[in-house]
Amino acid sequence: MKRKLTLMLLGLVMTVSANAQFENGKKYIGSSISGLNMSYNGSEKSHFGLQAKGGYLFMDDWMVTAQMAYDKKKDVSAELSLGVGARYYIVQNGLFLGASADYVHRGSDYDDFMPSVQIGYAFFISHTVTIEPEIYYNHSFKSHSDYSSVGFRLGFGVYL
Predict the structure, then answer these.
(1) What are the tens digits of pLDDT across the range 1-59?
(2) Range of the domain at 135
(3) Cα dihedral 133→117→69→124 (10° resolution)
(4) Which key words are in the record (predicted)?
(5) Residue 17 in 3-state DSSP?
(6) Based on the number of CB atoms within 10 Å of its own CB, is 79 exposed (0-12), middle (13-18) or buried (19 or more)?
(7) How many domains does the chain fold into?
(8) Rounded to whole angstroms, how far apart are CA atoms 82 and 104?
(9) Is 3 in a helix, a strand, or coil?
């Protein structure tokens, strides 16, 4: 009984402490890594990606984001992308849904527009710093079977 009460109290404290982080006017800075054979699409064997993201909570639970990324894939040119998106915190404990649209450029032979959806969790390790695991799906309009991908991304974020 004591254990259940302690777990419920801990859950309540985490929910209340996270609530203050997703309020109007907060700023967000984050970075993440992807790849490391944690994604799949039809044209690649392995890849490694780095992403930088900034955001602003324009109303409670809603964030607008801007991001840039670098992906290095085996046997093909490196990929650079720029994008904008939005994130919605479903519940006040850090669970979020995201959507973005990215312009992707690879070498001189490949440009694509790739919408993406994400689901993740902002786990607070301090009052402002988070670890953010995320599952994503990127959809390619140029070649769905070769460049659309599903993967896992692990990030760190700071809410100011």
Answers:
(1) 666 655 554 454 454 444 457 888 899 999 998 865 555 555 555 678 899 999 999 99
(2) 2-159
(3) -30
(4) Signal
(5) helix
(6) buried
(7) 1
(8) 7
(9) helix
Which one has a higher pLDDT value, 123 or 10? 123
Instruction: Provide the Cα torsion 123, 133, 66, 70; round to 10°.
Output: 140
What single-letter DSSP state applies at residue 64? E
Residues paired with 5 in a beta bridge:
none
Q: Is the pLDDT at 109 greater than 60, yes or no?
A: yes
* Burial bucket for residue 33 (CB in 10 Å: 0-12, 13-18, 19+): middle
> What spatial distance separates the first Cα and last Cα of the chain, rounded to whole Å?
38
| Structure token digits, residue 115 | 């919408």
Cα(138)–Cα(160) distance, rounded to whole angstroms? Answer: 28
> How is residue 15 written in tokens?
């929910």
For residue 97, what is the domain's CATH number?
2.40.160.20
**Average model confidence (pLDDT) for the chain?**
82
Q: Which residues pair with 98 in a beta bridge?
A: 87, 118
Identify whether the C-beta of residue 67 lies closer than 8 Å to the C-beta of residue 157. no
